[in-house]
Write a structure and sequence with these properties.
Length: 254
């Protein structure tokens, strides 16, 4: 199963077998990590693995999932650092899915006593290991809003834009809130972030992480149909005041 296929089959796994993964898996994973595509190439990052069956390893947090392993992503601070983190981590998560390993993002979890490289901050923890439940699910079973609720179509969509939107729709997000909304033309998609009620509002950086995951899904779908895309900010759209959302970024088909 390749990364694009994993988009349509991955699910969050919350029950794990407390079993070791083979060392070959980690060797191959490190090789895969060397070829990751960053969203912001200038930002340095580090991925650390925790064997939670080692009694010295501790991961704590609300909604914490018990798993044999955890992955901790560290990043330099900077513009789009959280977007870059989501964009990169989703590549690893989809790789694991395609190789028979379950994963679950742990948005509020912290790795106790684990320090990253100098100048980097912990961004996200991901639980992983062999699943003690179904590893995959059919895409139609995903609890996601339909495209008609996520998109405003200004022009008839092309096959390429439909593929990108379907992949974006399946992206995981914090509490499955799907903050993204899309205005769709044949050769461009404008992405907006839905504003949350104050009582539910998360930090903008966390929304940025979710957006990074979604943007990588868009990238995969574009590659699947052999289309080149660019991500860009349109300042005329960014300057507009909107009641329920704010402009985030655009996808341009080139």
């Amino acid at each position: 199963m390749d990364l694009y296929e994993a988009v349509y089959n991955r699910k969050s796994v919350r029950r794990y077998k407390m079993e070791l993964l083979p060392q070959e898996f980690f060797r191959n994973l490190r090789k895969f990590e060397q070829g990751l595509q960053p969203f912001v190439p200038e930002l340095h990052y580090s991925v650390e693995f925790i064997n939670a069956m080692d009694k010295e390893a501790r991961v704590r947090g609300l909604f914490h999932v018990k798993a044999p392993y955890y992955m901790v992503f560290f990043s330099e601070p900077g513009k789009y650092a959280m977007v870059n983190a989501g964009y990169l981590l989703e590549q690893i998560v989809l790789y694991m899915t395609g190789h028979g390993v379950g994963t679950c993002y742990q948005g509020s979890a912290k790795a106790v006593g684990l320090s990253g490289p100098a100048g980097m901050e912990p961004v996200m923890v991901v639980a992983f290991g062999y699943a003690d439940e179904r590893l995959h699910r059919e895409s139609f079973r995903a609890k996601r809003l339909p495209l008609k609720d996520l998109c405003v179509f200004k022009e008839d969509s092309t096959e390429e834009t439909r593929l990108m939107l379907q992949a974006a729709r399946l992206a995981p997000s914090a509490l499955n809130r799907q903050p993204w909304r899309f205005i769709v033309y044949q050769n461009r998609i404008h992405i907006f972030s839905k504003k949350e009620p104050v009582s539910l509002r998360t930090k903008e950086s966390r929304i940025g992480f979710d957006m990074g995951i979604m943007l990588f899904h868009v990238t995969l779908a574009a590659e699947e149909c052999w289309r080149d895309i660019e991500f860009a900010r349109k300042e005329n759209l960014a300057a507009r005041e909107m009641r329920s959302s704010y402009y985030f970024m655009s996808v341009l088909l080139v």
